Amino acid sequence: MSVDALKGALPAYAKDTKLNLGSVTTTSQLSDQQLWGTVLACALATGSARVIRELAEDAGDHLSAEAFDAAKAAASIMAMNNVYYRATHLIGDSTYADLPAKLRMSVIGRPGVDKVDFELWCLAVSAINGCGRCLESHEQVLRQAGMSRELIQEALRIAAVVNATAATLEAEAALAPATV
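Structure tokens predicted for Alkyl hydroperoxide reductase AhpD:
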């Protein structure tokens, strides 16, 4: 299993990350589609080729082709939206919030999977990308749809752990002696 490969690759100093990676993927109260779509979207958001390959393998065992593509779409659309909305917020001039974004975002309205699942994946990716405005928006949609704070928190934990896994493994690769 690919989660196991990543756990095995984590160094001793990242024991907490290793334990958390196992925990968030085995003890979740999220549906299988919600869990593995969140894992995949978060892996993609990290940009770590190794983490993407390993977790995509596991996600492929749990997701339909449509859900797999929708998780990829969530990572893609949020890569754009998180930059745009974070920037308009950070500028500090509220006029930007009133201007139309003029960015195509049709996948959010028709993601090809249950809208709640897609919103959850967008929320998790937004956590990795650090966009408060998107986090607030997606959390409100999820809460209005009846999702509990505890389930939303699970998606945030998954985002945190997948991101920590990627950051640790990328740092280790950068610190490894170059082979000539």
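The chain has ten helices and no strands.
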